[in-house]
TrEMBL record:
This is Homoserine O-succinyltransferase. Pathway: Amino-acid biosynthesis; L-methionine biosynthesis via de novo pathway; O-succinyl-L-homoserine from L-homoserine: step 1/1. Keywords: Acyltransferase, Amino-acid biosynthesis, Cytoplasm, Methionine biosynthesis, Transferase. The gene is metXS. Signal peptide: none annotated. Substrate binds at residues 219, 355.
Amino acid sequence: MTFTASPQSLHFEAPLPLQSGASIRGYDLSYETYGQLNAERSNAVLICHALNASHHVAGVYPGQERSEGWWDNMVGPGKPVDTNRFFVIGVNNLGSCFGSTGPMHVNPGTGQVYGAEFPVVTVEDWVNAQARLLDALGIGQLAAVMGGSLGGMQALSWTLQYPERVRHAVVVASAPNLTAENIAFNEVARRAIVTDPDFHGGHFYRHGVVPARGLRIARMIGHITYLSDDVMNEKFGRELRAAVVGNGSGYRFSTQDVEFQIESYLRYQGDKFSEYFDANTYLLITRALDYFDPARAFGGDLTQALARTQAKFLLVSFTTDWRFAPARSREIVKALLENRREVSYAEIDAPHGHDAFLLDDGRYMGVVRSYFERIAQVQA
């Protein structure tokens, strides 16, 4: 069942202190809500988004084709996160390019577009901003906070920064920090952007251009890491494009032409991404991914870092997700169990790689549905 979504925005004038020591004031947060907040204000669920998503979690925009929210299969009436029972909130994070204040907006302190001067933001900063928005909505405690990938990091951080405000945390396809390999992929993608001649040190807006080539390459690199080898082989294998096969000679033996289906697919994804995503936002969000490491302040001891948590947890991982491998979720599970927290864990045997957290796997959806049904029964 699909429903109509209505974007909203809240303005915050008071400065928000950031982890970097800087602060940001006069900012806006875009958000959407689905369902009804009950009289006790006890049924709120916050959904945290990953790198290239937004506050548009579910529903459709009237009059727009293909405008479904990025987790519309998960959130809505009768869906695993049932909006007949829960009041669901999606927030676009600071620094993003989908409505909340980011590099494309004007800095009220200078009257100029932020561009490269937008302050560095972290997962912890996003959580603090989300908490301010919940305050404005009159929500003191969340029934649950949920997210996949980078969104899962935010959900975990909520249980550390505001342990008394979260009853349940659902962390999907995530990790307690990035591996060196993950940081390396992010850095290569960032270098593709900053070395694009149209980047202009992050102030490309002034020049009326977009570093599209860099964004395309960054997206292609990222997309490879989101898919499993099995999915790429199944969807594309070593198939040549029809135009190549049709010439009767197989390969063109060219260093420039697009010959394989996987090449065509990646270029399509890169082209599409460069049309809607902001280059400075990409740099900011991948850095936030790199910086997240709650155990760092405890000498790398994750068990000690998670001792502050009070919530109950559901963690979900996928067997073919090599970007956020199941072993990383099990690290969190182990640390929580060592702190005697109540934890449910599901490792789903799915072929889709990291993207599995966005897809309709019946076992995955069933696990989430069952967990939220238990939450609803307790508060009923």
